[in-house]
Structure formats: structure tokens, C-alpha cells
Amino acid sequence: MFSSKEAFKQRFLEKFEKMYSKSFAESTLQEQYNTLGQLVREFVSHDWIETNEFYRSNQKKQAYYFSIEFLLGRLLGSNLLNLGVRDIIEVGLKELGVDLIELEEQEVDAGLGNGGLGRLAACFLDSLASLSLPGHGVGIRYKHGLFDQKIVDGYQVELPEQWLRNGNVWEIRKASHSIEVKFGGEVQVSHNGQLMFHHVNAETVTAVPYDMPVIGYQNKVVNTLRLWSAEPSQFRPDKGDVMKYKRETEAISEFLYPDDSHIDGKILRLKQQYFLVSAGLQSIIRSYLKNNYDLLQFHQRVAIHVNDTHPVLAIPELMRILMDEHGFGWEEAWEITTHTISYTNHTTLSEALEKWPTSIFKPLLPRIYMIIEEINERFCKQLWMKYTGNWKRIEEMAIIAHGMIKMAHLAIVGSHSVNGVAQIHTDILKSREMKMFYEFYPYKFNNKTNGITHRRWLMKANPELTSAIKDAIGDEWIVNPKKLALLMDYAKDASFQDKIFEVKQCKKRSLAKRIKSLTGIVVDEQSIFDVQVKRLHAYKRQLLNILHIMYLYNRLKEDANFSITPRTFIFGAKASPGYYYAKKIIKLINTLAVKVNNDPKTKEMLKVIFLENYRVSLAEEIIPAANVSEQISTASKEASGTGNMKFMMNGAITIGTLDGANVEILEEVGSDNIYTFGLTADQVLAYQRNGGYRAHEYYHHNKYLHQVIDQLVGGFFSVTSQEFETIYDSLLVQNDEYFVLKDFHSYVHTHEKLGAAYNDQNSWLEKSIINIAKSGRFSSDRTIKEYADEIWKIHSSKQ
Ligand code: 26W
Hints:
Blueprint: H1 5-20, H2 29-57, E1 62-66, E2 70-73, H3 76-83, H4 86-95, H5 100-104, E3 110-112, H6 116-130, E4 135-140, E5 148-152, E6 155-159, E7 172-173, E8 179-183, E9 186-192, E10 194-200, E11 203-215, E12 222-232, H7 242-251, H8 267-290, H9 298-301, E13 302-307, H10 314-325, H11 330-340, E14 341-344, E15 355-357, H12 358-364, H13 366-386, H14 391-397, E16 400-401, E17 404-406, H15 407-413, E18 417-420, H16 423-433, H17 435-440, E19 445-447, H18 454-460, H19 463-473, H20 476-479, H21 494-519, E20 528-533, H22 542-558, E21 567-572, H23 580-597, E22 606-610, H24 616-622, E23 628-631, H25 643-649, E24 653-656, H26 662-669, E25 675-676, H27 681-690, H28 695-701, H29 703-713, H30 725-732, H31 740-759, H32 761-773, H33 780-792
Parallel strand pairs: 1-4, 1-13, 4-12, 13-14, 14-18, 18-19, 20-21, 20-23, 21-22, 23-24, 24-25
Antiparallel strand pairs: 2-3, 5-6, 7-11, 8-11, 9-10, 11-12, 15-17, 16-17
Helix pairs in contact: 1-2, 1-4, 3-18, 6-33, 8-10, 10-11, 10-13, 12-13, 19-21, 21-32, 22-23, 22-29, 22-31, 28-29
Bound molecules: ligand 26W.
């Protein structure tokens, strides 16, 4: 169908007329986008069916990645890339007077995630399909994704996101595959030879699946992302207020919770979690049984992965289905369940570890609660055998204690594999947060360092760099990203360095244009583009970056002999709507931007840009244009980070702490090619243990630091002195929980080295090329191979 541009053009025009019954001359961009999207989706239908058929007839073990978030971004561009039809379509459309890039920009990002965890899930889907692995996503079809961010007078304002407003060309509603999910009610027990549990008087919700194709890279594989939507059930007996029921039901899949790393014990969130796992599991089991497979072999044919604890009710839900619906006894059901489920932890921040009060849980999910109680009781008995008399330890490890259900404990007990997302993170889990569990179940723990799909983050986001790489080393790296290492031979090559320089300049020029159109600000394309884009969080320390910019500004103002290589500091970040401190930091960045950008004395040297509404599609424009990647979290706090990998792959040099995957980036590129600074994780953890940190000492002993901190509250900015009081207090009154002051000096000094290094362009370009060359390890293809081989035991259909 897309074999020639002529064939494409004909199909495209036919499709347009069918969809819109008008002449193409009257088409809008939106209609053109919809037409192309529909055409592409229909184009993959055949391979989609074939892929499913292949898995079925070859009895392939399937993996299902359960995740409360999938941060997909736009799909048209990556689908065309993976199908290998982008060029033909681009030329064909051009002849029809249509610009493909303009069409791509019509697509609203699918922003069904907050940040790292959701984007990781999306990268994993791309890798699964591209490696011809039978692995699928299971999630929720939120009507509204992560809020749209507007900046008004420097403050963040949230608006409801509306990604479905023009429909979604990629999804297929499969009403006939709907599932009933039950909430509330009571459990009745009957004795009929064996104990039987009946969930009665429950409120039923219908889960309707919407399937989206996940297209592999030029391999004819099309896997499935199944997103569930909540609708009123037709089987609900007439129980009064229908409108209320409708509202409450639809609310389940209405909004994505916008918090990142902070629990909010809302009952609706718990409903979402159970809705996802119950619909997902029931539907997997339904199709499993349709194939006449024996449930005793479930774990040999199905792997279920829970992405953080949010879908962890998959454990009691699978137990429920096996026991109550299929008559299994506890031991058998437990054997099957624990061998089916595996779990990833994505954070050690205690405020993000999920706990549910039994008082909320029990009435909402009575049968699931009973099962968790039983799991807990049996687990505690096991603990008693090993740690007889050690009540304290048993209490600390219990799943239910003091009226709370600890979801991470349930995840560890009910699964066969527990992994962290970077080596240092896994080590911290084993030696601290999950130490007691590691001692009890050492064989369950393993590391899977995160990765990113090089198809979206290099090939799609940076076609210019892609072709420069291909010209140098061919294209073997596309299917085997480790082969990017062949670029090492070109690191010192003057003409390749020139090319890399040109590519970077070209991406900086495009970003500068975008910045101009979004903010009206003109930035110097020759300046260092220094970028920090990620969720706003105290531990990620955007504040450290800001204090450094304030320092540079002060020095430039006060010391005629002080000079720097011109810099453009670029920020992008959403703050959780209820996170007061994070919102103040956004206001601070914007306030600083106004001051710095308009000062005649510094505006040639320094610019501060805050790009609103940071999201996947904006990341694809920003990251390729970066010279410097800011990865400056308090050591031990960032589980992995994945932005760090995207920047590296696009040739930016990292300034970062020894945290998360930065440690492994250092291992790959060597200390000449990354700028690390600050406390190590061990030092941070030691300070936290011994309480020996005194923030105010750093304030008193560093005059520059003293000055910038005073400026937060002293009329330096044209705002009231209360505006940034919270930030000031976090540093000096609350003793600087994230060691900003402690690391300030080392950060400033390291930035000086970085600035000097940039001025030696040949050596800078060499570093840049080495970063690209060594980024292959951070392709999510590597990560997914490890999950497939070591956890899920699934096999490629090409083997
Ligand atoms: C229940 C509230 C909540 C919401 C989200 C708790 C925890 C989360 C996520 C686990 C936060 C998250 O996205 N973590 C990030 O996961 C990435 C992928 O593994 C890592 O690269 C980041 O370091 C980690 O912060």
C-alpha cells in the first residue's frame, strides 16, 4: 500500500474522501492528520492480526506490563519511523501540498503519565515490539492526561488536559471484550465440601478496552497496548440514583493523578488501581482459557509485571480469580501467582511508598482485603519460624501493621522478582529500604538499569545526528545500539567533529526559534545551552541550578574582571498542583529570568528561559539542542533518571551527582567526559544517620552563597519579601534537607571547569562524540532483553 508514493497518494485521497465527504482542497490540517493516522492504523491491521496469530499458534509465553502510567507522547512520527515509510509519505504528501512535519504537530501528546515511570513504560513497549518480543502494555485510558501548564505572572496554573478532543486515531474500542469489575458489597461464605467465598451486593463497573498498536522497528511485529475505560454497567440492578452512579463510575478513568513521588491516599486512586488490575487480569485469563490452556501452567505461559506498587493488587486479584472462580486451593494458587508476578521499585523516597489504611481498603475491596490478610498471616508465620521471638522485626516486615497495608511489602512477598532501576538504587534497596526483605529473600532481588528507546530519542528526535552517525559507521547500531561504540574511532576526527558541531548548531537554531515563538525572547545560538528539564521536586534540586545562576549574575555585575562563556539556562518542569514549595521554585525561576534577561549589563552573557508545559514532544525539541545536561539530584535520591540518558545520546555533556544511572554513565564514558560533583550517596546517608550537617555553616562561610540566599528575601527581586520565604526557610530554618548549600561550592567550581572545557571546542566535541558512542548501553533494548531473559522468560519470535 505504501510501496510507492503514487500508491500512497491515491490511498490517502481516497481515504480522505471516505472520511470527510468533501474535496481535498477544502481539507484542514486536522483532517489531513486524521486521514493519515487512520490510514497508517489500517495499514498495520494485517501485521497486528498476524502477530497475535503467531503468538497464539506458536504458544508463545506472553508478558504483560501493568502500569498506571504510559507517557507515550505523539505516535505518528514514531510509527512512520518504525514502519519504514516516512520518506515515501513525506514526498507523497509534499506533492499534495502537505507538510508532514506540520501534520505531526497536529497530534496532541498522549500524556498519560507524570514523568520517569510513565515514560519508561512507553520506551519499554517500543523495545518489546522492536525486539519481536511478545510483551504488551495494560493501563488506564484517562480522559484527561497530566494537566496542561500555563505560566501566568511567573506562577504555574493548571488546566485540564484534553488529548481526546479531536478523537484518537490510534485506538480501537473493543466493547465486546468488556469486563465487569466489582467494588464494595460483602463477602459471604458457604460450605460445599470446601469453603466458597461469594462477593455479594457489590457495585459493578464495566471496563471497556481500547487497544492501540505498538509497532516494532521494521519487523512486522505489532504488539498491543490495552487501555481500560470505566463505564456504567448494564448489569447493575436498579439501585436508585442512576446519575450519581454514572458520575462515580466514569470518574474512575477520568483523571490521571498528577503527583509524582508523593502519596495521596484518595479512595479514587485505590479504585483506579483495582480497576486496572482486575480488568487486565480477567481479560488475560479469559483469552488464556479460550486457548484451552490449563491454569495450572499459567505462570509458564504468562508473565505479569507490576510497574511500581500501583498495580500490586494484581497479586490478591489473581489469587481471587484462581480460588473463587476456578476452585484452586490456596497453596496451588499461591504457587501460580508468585511465579507469575514480578515487581519493579522506582523510588526510595519514603513519602512515595504506598500504604492504604485498612479502614478505606476493607469496605471498598472486601474479598481482596481478606486475601491480603491471609497472605500476611501466612507470611508472618514464616517470619516467626525464622525469627522466633523477634516481634519487632516481624512487625516491621508485616504487610498489614497498625491499620495500614504496605503495598511494597505485598509486592515483595507475592512476586518472584524485585528489581531496582539502576545499580546504585538496587544496592540502596538491598542495604537499606528493603534490607530485611533482602535477607529473607536474597534470590528475588536484582537490578535492571533503565534505558530509553534510541528510535524515538535519537532517530526521531534528531534525524540530523542520525544521518551523521550513519555516514560515519553505517546503520548496524540501529538494531544493535552497542555498535554506536564504533564512533569511538571518530572522536578525534576533525571532519566528524565538524559535522557534530553543525548538527548541534542546527538543533540549537531550531530550539532558539521555538523559544522566540513561545516566549518572545531571543537567545544567543553561540551560547552554551545548559538544560534542566524534569519534574519539579526538591530532591532534583532545581534550586541549586538557580542559586548558581544568581551567583553568576552577581559576579558579572560586581566584578569587571569576571567573565564567562555566554550561557542560556533552559528549564522545563511541572510541579504537582498541591506541592507548594515546587510551585515557589517555578515562580523563582521566572522571577530570576525577568531580572537577568532584561539587565543590560548581563543580558549578552546570561539568559534564563522557562518553557511552559514540558512534555514528551517538547523534550524531543529541547534535548537534541543541549550542550549541557543538568542531573544534579541529592545523591541517593534519584532512583535512575532517564533524561540523563537522552541527553547523553544526543551529545550533551552531563554535570551531575553520583546518583542513579549517572554512576553508570560515568563508568561508560570515563571521568574526562562527565562532570561529577558533590556528596556521594554514602556521605548523604551518613549525614542523615548521624545528623551532623549544619547548613548555616555553609551560609556563613561562603560569601557568595550568603549573598544569594539573602537575595531570596531581601528585595533583590521585585516581589514581596514573603514570596520566597519558604525557600529561604527550607535552607536555613529546616537545615537544608537536600544538601543544596553543602554541594554549592563544588557545583560552582565544576561549572567553571565545564565552561573552560567548552571553550576548547575540539576537546568538547570529542567528549560529545564519546558520550554518543557510549550511549548504546542505555538503549531500552538492552534493558528489555535483560527483563525478557532474566525475569519474564519470554522469547523473540525471530529466534
Ligand atoms: C503514589 C505516588 C507516586 C507516583 C509516582 C509514587 C511514585 C511514583 C513514581 C515511582 C515516581 C517516578 O516516576 N520515579 C522515577 O522512575 C524513573 C523510572 O524508573 C526513574 O528514572 C526516576 O529516577 C524515578 O524518580
